[in-house]
Design brief:
The complex is a heterodimer of chains A (318) and B (294). Chain A has helices spanning 2-20, 23-49, 56-73, 78-100, 105-125, 127-130, 152-175, 177-187, 189-194, 199-225, 235-248, 253-270, 276-291, 295-317; strands spanning 143-144, 147-148. By secondary structure, chain A is mainly α. Chain A has one domain (27-277): ABC transporter involved in vitamin B12 uptake, BtuC. Chain A has a two-stranded antiparallel ribbon with strand order 1-2. In chain A, strand 1 and strand 2 (147-148) form a beta hairpin. The two termini of chain A are 29 Å apart. Chain B has one domain: ABC transporter involved in vitamin B12 uptake, BtuC. Chain B has a two-stranded antiparallel sheet. Chain B has 294 residues and is an all-alpha fold. The chains are: A mainly alpha (318), B mainly alpha (294). The A-B interface holds A 52, 99-100, 102-111, 113-115, 117-118, 121-122, 124-125, 235-236, 239, 243, 246, 275-276, 278-279, 281-283, 285-286, 289-290, 293 and B 36, 84, 87-88, 91, 93-97, 99-101, 103-112, 114-115, 222, 226, 229-230, 233, 237, 262, 264-268, 271-272, 274-275, 278-279, 282, 293-294.
Chain lengths: 318, 294
Amino acid sequence: MHRWFVLVAVIAAWAAVPVVADRQLVGLLVFTAIYVIAGLGVGLLLGQCGIVNFAQAAFYGIGAYSTAYCTARLGLPNAAGFVLGIGGSAAIAFLIGWPVLRLTGYFLALATLAFGIIANSMFFEWDLITGGELGVGGIPKLAIGAFVFDTPERFYYLVWIVVFVCMLLVRNLMGSRTGLMMRAMRDSPEAAASLAIDMHWLRTKMFMVGAALGSIGGSLWAHHINFVSVHSFSIERSITLLLIPVIGGLNSLPGIVIGALFVTFVPEFFSRFGDFHQILFGLALVAVVVAAPNGIIGFGAAIIDRWKTSLATTDEAK
Amino acid sequence: MSFLMTQAVLAGIVNGCIYALTGMGLAAIFKGTRVINAMQGEFSIIAAIATVLLMRGYGLPYWAAISGGIASGAVIGAVVEIMLVRPMNARNAPDDSYLLLTIGLAMTLSACVLYFVGRDSYGLPPIGGDGVIFVSDAILQEHAAWLIGIVLLLSLVIRQFYHKTTLGLSMMAASIDPDGAATSGVDVRMMRTCTFALGGILGAVAGVLVAPIVPVNYHLGLALTLKGFAAAILGGLTNPMGAVIGGLVLGLVESLAVVGVPSGYRDVVAFSALIAIMIFMPHGLLGHAGRKGG
């Protein structure tokens, strides 16, 4: 009963935002949603498989360029960009992941980092497709039938519904047999291996899923700002996307949303301080890592726990 | 060897030495504390810019300014360890959180540089002036020759430091077996601070050596860290000497690739080679068994 009430309240607040909030806030929330989708891909790998992925911006870029190329250059329907992006990212994730996912720990992190740099150079050099430094413009807005998502408010509803669907799918995945296998692999690789779980293939599959999520985020982003350029898919972007699950909380879906809110709103809030805002963002990040090791979600849970315990002890005292 | 090849090899060695020095700093910190230090490149840019400012603003002589710059690296390293790494270590934080901490610090420090000294690039006068040395028919700046010499010398010094001096041995002991080291009277926490200071010094030396060749700005740190990280991994990560070999290999692969493929693919070639080496030579180029990271 209580949970349903919270759910209804959250949905009502979500639906009311574009009506009451100004356009800038709605715009930021659209970016938040796109980051949630791409961040889900990173969080799934990090939280469930222990894979640090420094290359999510590459898949994000593949999605964005697929959309740009299919719609702005070839004039194909919008869906083609999404399909090509997802298919392309998953295929590349397979080709890269199959050999690379044998590595573990820091070495795997470096391998994904290296791939991220390679992909960024490729985006830069293959200017026939990507437009190189100049980028690709004129990407149309998304539309369903005659209804065009041409204002931030309309797009807001669309992207958050996509977020919701992606989260539901990820949640189902985590609860499925595959999810149980992942948990077994994460908590006790030896036991998982003795149960004939093909861990290498499982990790590769998850890498492909994460890449597909990144690609969906990239395609939506391209449709939203109508322009893509190589500077959007740098290592810094990959680091931002990696920070989303880390800041919010690794193993929780609401944590991803909080992480995405953090990386969009904190820099925006600090931007009034000019160049100084980057220092503040860096310090905020350091503070989260030092003070809230389980992410903001974990930090909040710890505080609530302490509050409940103190309530319980005062009750006993009475 | 054609002129172009000789020149490419020389450029590769010079770049490789810079990567090697950054990699040595990373490897030293990893060896001593098991922390991957993503702010290694920031040590370099801060030291280089501090040196330039000491020379310009306070009119200090060249060597005094360089000493000041290098000291800044040591101080930053020690302060970071005492204020941030030590409390996290005390509560047994997981490995990846150190990586995130240093990423956050790298962002903060590079933003500080941007805020306080702006977007300009800062160069230093080269050691040995503008003189050049001819190697067969190719040209090597005199400064670059100094750089190569200093890096090789430094790698030997570090090796001797870890094997012969009490401080070096204590730092290793504190990392390999903290409890055992503490029992034998080694101040483990102090040794970890020293390790970070040493990493800061190595990063700072890299900074003052690179600034005469490539003027440094707030944005250069990440690129340096990445290449240094690659060098360290190629060498086996726990072995500062290995980083020298890793750095040279990386530098040579990169610059020789430019002879064959368009220059935009420089990073593609270098990092593809890195991935291939990690997969096919999982113990680094030296084949050491001591290459434990994950």
